[in-house]
Every structure is written in structure tokens, then in C-alpha cells.
Design goal:
two-stranded antiparallel ribbon, membrane, Palmitoyltransferase, 9 helices, single chain, acyltransferase, elongated, mainly alpha
């Protein structure tokens, strides 16, 4: 049987001498484990700030250029409430995706409490009380015991279980614990982009039929420039987030992350139905909470460290 490079790498990880627990730095004290999760990456922070600025720009154009000058009060109120509600949910989803631990092994809960980075020490390995036939993997980069389906992120400097990719727009990895928020973020951004495009189309038609000086609080050239910029932004983000939303939903349904698909890794986990995979990400049971970035999904209590080979 042909042995792939992935198999050879895993075989090396299974050797006792590969763990080298004596070379690992002891984990941080328990008092430092309750800090907020935030990635200090300059590019990621800049992208996150740009994301919020673009949403605020869209809200500015929608409200002050199109809705406030409109003579149809009901049209303005309904669209203003709808657009701002979707924008709020998009930014809330972005906030949760950015500040949620994507289930790196830093905060995984076991009987002994939170498991920190650098936990591949002799004492912790002995505390797992591994049975014959059970093995643990160690990441040589962050010196942590590596759960199955985990990959090391060079930006987050952590091993992330079910890591799909590192997204600079949310300044975080998309992993097991924050994938729901990332999916909601892409969905709500796509919705407000489509909503903005529809309103821009109606506004252009209204301005062509009426006097341009009466259809906006700004001068006609300024109005046209603002609307064209919003159109370009909305179209670009509608395409981008729609594609991301589709790939994320496909990844969830097939229970295979983007990295696992890219590396064509051997499937070593149990196959579940698409509906069960959706509930594993968005929570049990199905409810309106699936659409809320404020509801934390219940993902079960599986032991990530012990496997039967």
C-alpha cells in the first residue's frame, strides 16, 4: 500500500520520542487564561477597521443620500430600519467572529481545566492517562498537544481544530468555535449589499424622473459619485461574500474544512448527515437562534485528545 506524505508525518508524530515533553515551556498560569481572545496582527486589524468603515459608509449613503431626502415616508422608514438591522447583525457577527477563540487548544476544557499553549509537558501527558492503543500528537511549532483535525496557524500562533482558513477581514482563524459567526457575517454582508444595490437602482430611476436637485441633499455631481462608489462596493462585496457563504455552507455540510480539502487529507472522523453537521455548527436544536450572532451554539463535549489507532 502506498504511504502518502501525510501518513508518514502522522507516523512520525506517533513516536514517543517525537513528543519531547522535556523541551516544552510550561504553560502559563491559570490567572492568564481568562484574557480576551484577540489577534495582534497589523494587516488583520487594518482589514477589520476597513470592513467597519465600509459598512458605515454604506449606511451613510443609504440614509443621508437616498432615504432622508425621499418624499415617501413609509418607504424611507421601512428600508432604513431593515438596512440598519442587517448592518447591525453583520457587524455583531464580525465582532463575535473576530473576538471568539476559534477553538485553539488554548481554551479547550478537560477535567483539569483550560488547556493552554505549550501543554505538551510530561506532567500533562501523564495526566491524560492514555490507554493502550491511544496516542497524542504534538505540534512542533507551538509545543502543544495537537487534537485530531487541527492545523497550526502561523498568524494566530496556535493550533486550530477544524481550521478552515485564516481570514484577515475578521482578523482571526475560522475554526470550530467561530464558524457560525463567520457564516452569519458573510450572509448579512451579502444581504445588505443586495439591499443597497436595489435601493440605488430605485433612486437613480427616481432622480431621472424628477429634478436631481430635489432627490438628494447633496449636489448632483456629489450624489452621483457617492451612489457609484456605493454601487461598486455593494457589487464587489455581494459577489465575494456570496461565494464565501456558499463555500462555508458546503464545507459544513460535507464536514470537511477548506484546508482538509486543499491537502486532500484522509477522512478519519465519523461521517454524519448534512443536517447533523449544520446543527453541530449552529447549535441544537434548529431555532431562530441560528440567525443570531448573540446565541452561542452548543457543540457537545467530545474529548479531542484521545484516539484509537
Amino acid at each position: 500500500m502506498m504511504i502518502t506524505p501525510i501518513h508518514r508525518f502522522r507516523d512520525i508524530e506517533r513516536r514517543p520520542e517525537y513528543l519531547q515533553p522535556d523541551k516544552c515551556v510550561p504553560p502559563p498560569s491559570q490567572s492568564s487564561l481568562g484574557t480576551m481572545w484577540f489577534i495582534r496582527d497589523g494587516c488583520g486589524i487594518a482589514c477589520a477597521v476597513v470592513t467597519w468603515m465600509l459598512v458605515f459608509y454604506a449606511d451613510f449613503v443609504v440614509l443621508l443620500v437616498m432615504l432622508v431626502p425621499s418624499r415617501d415616508y413609509i418607504y424611507s422608514v421601512i428600508n432604513g430600519i431593515l438596512f440598519n438591522m442587517l448592518a447591525f447583525l453583520a457587524l455583531a457577527s464580525h465582532f463575535r467572529a473576530m473576538l471568539s477563540d476559534p477553538v485553539s487548544i488554548l481554551f479547550w476544557k478537560l477535567a483539569s481545566g483550560a488547556v493552554p499553549k505549550g501543554n505538551a509537558t510530561k506532567e500533562f501527558i501523564e495526566s491524560l492517562q492514555l490507554k493502550p492503543g491511544q496516542v497524542v500528537y504534538k505540534c512542533p511549532k507551538c509545543c502543544s498537544i495537537k487534537p485530531d483535525r487541527a492545523h497550526h496557524c502561523s498568524v494566530c500562533k496556535r493550533c486550530i481544530r477544524k481550521m478552515d482558513h485564516h481570514c484577515p477581514w475578521v482578523n482571526n482563524c475560522v475554526g470550530e468555535n467561530n464558524q457560525k459567526y463567520f457564516v452569519l457575517f458573510t450572509m448579512y454582508i451579502a444581504l445588505i449589499s443586495m439591499h443597497a444595490l436595489i435601493m440605488v437602482g430605485f433612486h437613480f430611476l427616481y432622480c431621472f424622473e424628477e429634478d436631481w436637485t430635489k432627490c438628494s441633499s447633496f449636489s448632483p455631481p456629489t450624489t452621483v459619485i457617492l451612489l457609484i462608489l456605493l454601487c461598486f462596493e455593494a457589487l464587489l462585496f455581494l459577489i465575494f461574500t456570496s461565494v464565501m457563504f456558499g463555500t462555508q455552507v458546503h464545507s459544513i455540510c460535507t464536514d470537511e474544512t477548506g484546508i482538509e480539502q486543499l491537502k486532500k487529507e484522509e477522512r478519519r472522523w465519523a461521517k454524519k448527515t448534512k443536517w447533523m453537521n449544520m446543527k453541530a455548527v449552529f447549535g441544537h436544536p434548529f431555532s431562530i437562534a441560528w440567525l443570531s450572532p448573540f446565541a452561542t451554539p452548543d457543540q457537545g463535549k467530545a474529548d479531542p485528545y484521545q484516539y484509537v489507532v
